[in-house]
Design brief:
By secondary structure, this protein is an alpha+beta fold. Helices cover about 45% and strands about 15% of the residues. The strands form 2 sheets. Strands 5-6-7-8-9-10-11-12 form an 8-stranded antiparallel beta barrel. The longest helix has about 40 residues.
Length: about 650
């Protein structure tokens, strides 16, 4: 069998480095997304007590940023390869071949072993050194995977060999050599820094199912169970996050698959297609089990590609796999954007036209397709691929011609899509996606609850509203609205009012002393929802349980809870005191106002009664794609407490 003398890139066909392009595109988006992360973190720090919807929105926004966190990990892994090497070897139990735990057993006294085959570790090391000088071998007794490459330092590379490959070495040495050559094929393109053991890219693919369950499905389910899913902006955010999960994975998985198919082809050129096929069928269950199916192509697909590596169809698949995944992001984005616009109040017709317009604009407006075209143009000349050297036999020239045709297709796909994106084929709806004015003036959407509700009942305020005022595409387009917090919410209508008619809960005349009095909550008499759920009312009552109150000589009542505004006396009638107060908290994107009316019935006895009507309205404002989205939700409760002036 004839093996290559080194791993220097040969002038033969191969797909472009889509894995590195994926890393570069994610890196280019990092500065803008860091700012978004800071905004979300501020929102998390300012979420009020009635802000479950806004809390879930912030958590979902963080989920969308998760790929950027893995990108940062990938950059750090590039900067500190030795740290990654130590972590990988400690986790997988990888040891040097001369380690006492891996060294071959000593021959028995008097035995003749001069004609015996060398130990498998020595044979593997010699094979790896012959094809990639300086590459070190490390061994592990763990099962599950066969072999992986990983960086050992700035300029060193290591190959981890596991128990299944050791077994294959003893049963089919040619297939085992093909596995090692596959790993060295990754080394040939420097892919050990982005893939292999300890790769943040493969870690991203592995954790997505758990992130989806823990940070998306669970909080959203709780939001609906508690009846707090009343903000249209929250529901739209849920849709967009659920759509972003396959959208994010698509490019990363396509890049990893492209790298695996390229390494298979390198191994097949060196060891032969039959040896690679036998290795795939022997080790495919371990290397492709569980979530490894996401970052390794299916075994059947790899076998067909190796067996028909010279055909135009396989070459097209390897070359266009990543651009087609990039193109598939468009329908996924449209499937998420359409219901999001409808949830925010747009008509189906306007939402459909807006989604088509945004998809059309993204073809030429985003750098991904321009970068794809540049890589497809530069890659063959830069590597010498597709060029027929002088003296090439005529029997080998058809393969070079096929390579040129495949690369032409790789150039043609992004070029045609960019041309379509530059043509004015899909204009946005006149007046904006939420406007119904044919003259082109932008009007806000009707105020309503997502479920069709209107304003509140006589016992409380309405559940929520959503609207938009944006810059539409009309005869005279307006500038994008600036980033600013929403206006302070107005007091909800229909809140019940207190009257000074209840008797004192304790014997004695009116409290005529001007000295301050201190109370603590002795018991919660009742907690009823005026708007929202009973669970929310019980939650508010639970926070008021154990609170300490101070009635000052100026008639103000203050609590030691930040969520309770300072209450100021409006009237006093004998033992009954009426009070009111409000407080507003603001962030860059939200404003939350708490109103509280109170009736305090005091006397000379040890206990007093405090009745409260509390309402909280949270308003959120976001500017997305030159459009202003606003959403608000209101909850209200009526709580009665018994206070004691004893510690």
């Amino acid at each position: 069998m004839r093996w290559p003398a080194s791993l220097r890139p040969a002038r033969s066909w191969g797909p472009p480095p889509w894995l590195w392009l994926t890393l570069a595109l994610l890196l280019a988006q990092l500065p803008a997304l860091i700012g978004h992360t800071l905004d979300v973190s501020k929102g998390l720090g300012q979420v009020g007590e009635a802000g479950r919807g806004r809390f879930v929105t912030a958590v979902l926004s963080l989920v969308q940023l998760l790929p950027q966190f893995f990108l940062l990990a990938a950059v750090l892994a590039l900067l500190v390869p030795r740290a990654r090497c130590r972590r990988v070897e400690r986790r997988y139990g990888l040891l040097a071949p001369d380690d006492p735990l891996m060294a071959p057993p000593a021959p028995a006294p008097g035995s003749r072993d001069g004609g015996a085959d060398p130990h498998f570790a020595a044979a593997m090391t010699a094979f790896v050194q012959a094809h990639a000088p300086g590459t070190l071998l490390r061994l592990s007794t763990q099962d599950g995977i066969s072999a992986r490459v990983y960086p050992g330092g700035g300029r060193t590379v290591r190959v981890g060999v596991f128990a299944p490959l050791v077994h294959l070495w003893h049963t089919d040495i040619d297939a085992a050599r093909a596995v090692l050559l596959h790993e060295l094929g990754h080394l040939r393109k420097g892919e050990q820094h982005a893939t292999g053991l300890g790769s943040p890219f493969t870690a991203l693919v592995r954790v997505w199912p758990y992130v989806l369950a823990g940070l998306v499905v669970l909080p959203v389910t709780l939001l609906f169970v508690t009846g707090d899913a009343t903000a249209s902006l929250t529901l739209a955010e849920v849709v967009l996050v659920l759509e972003s999960v396959p959208k994010v994975l698509l490019l990363v998985v396509a890049a990893l698959w492209s790298a695996e198919l390229g390494a298979d082809r390198f191994a097949a050129r060196a060891a032969g297609a039959d040896a690679v096929v036998r290795a795939l069928r022997s080790l495919g269950k371990g290397d492709h089990g569980g979530l490894a199916r996401l970052y390794h192509p299916p075994v059947g697909m790899r076998v067909r590609c190796v067996s028909r590596a010279g055909t135009t169809r396989v070459r097209l698949l390897s070359t266009l796999l990543w651009p087609l995944a990039l193109f598939a992001q468009l329908p996924l984005a449209m499937l998420g954007a359409f219901p999001a616009y409808v949830l925010l109040g747009a008509s189906a017709d306007r939402a459909g036209r807006q989604v088509l317009a945004l998809a059309h604009e993204s073809l030429a407006g985003q750098p991904a397709w321009w970068a794809t075209l540049a890589v497809a143009l530069v890659w063959p000349p830069a590597t010498g691929e597709g060029r027929v050297p002088r003296g090439t036999p005529m029997t080998e020239r058809p393969g070079a011609a096929r390579s040129a045709a495949v690369h032409a297709a790789a150039v043609l796909l992004p070029a045609v899509l960019l041309l379509v994106g530059l043509l004015p084929l899909a204009p946005r709806p006149v007046g904006g996606v939420f406007a119904d004015d044919p003259a082109g003036r932008t009007t806000p959407a009707a105020t309503r609850a997502p479920g069709g509700g209107g304003t509140g009942t006589d016992a409380g305020a309405g559940a929520g509203n959503s609207g938009e005022a944006g810059a539409g595409v009309g005869a005279t387009p307006t500038a994008c609205p600036g980033r600013a917090a929403p206006r302070d919410p107005s007091r909800p209508p229909g809140l019940p009012a207190f009257t000074a008619g209840n008797p004192s809960p304790s014997a004695g005349g009116p409290d005529r002393s001007g000295a301050p009095r201190t109370f603590r909550t002795l018991a919660v008499v009742s907690a009823d929802p005026l708007s929202g759920t009973r669970a929310q009312a019980q939650e508010v009552a639970g926070r008021l349980r154990g609170a300490r109150w101070t009635l000052r000589d100026d008639g103000t009542l203050a609590a030691d809870l930040a969520e309770v505004p300072v209450l100021r006396t409006t009237s006093v009638d004998g033992t009954t005191r009426l009070l009111t107060g409000e407080r507003t908290r603001r962030t860059d994107v939200s404003a939350t106002t708490t109103w509280m009316d109170a009736r305090l019935v005091t006397g000379t006895g040890p206990t007093v009664r405090l009745d409260l009507v509390r309402a909280v309205t949270g308003a959120t404002r976001a500017v997305v794609d030159c459009r202003e989205f606003t959403s608000s939700s209101t909850t209200a409760q009526r709580v009665s407490l018994t206070l004691s002036d004893r510690p």
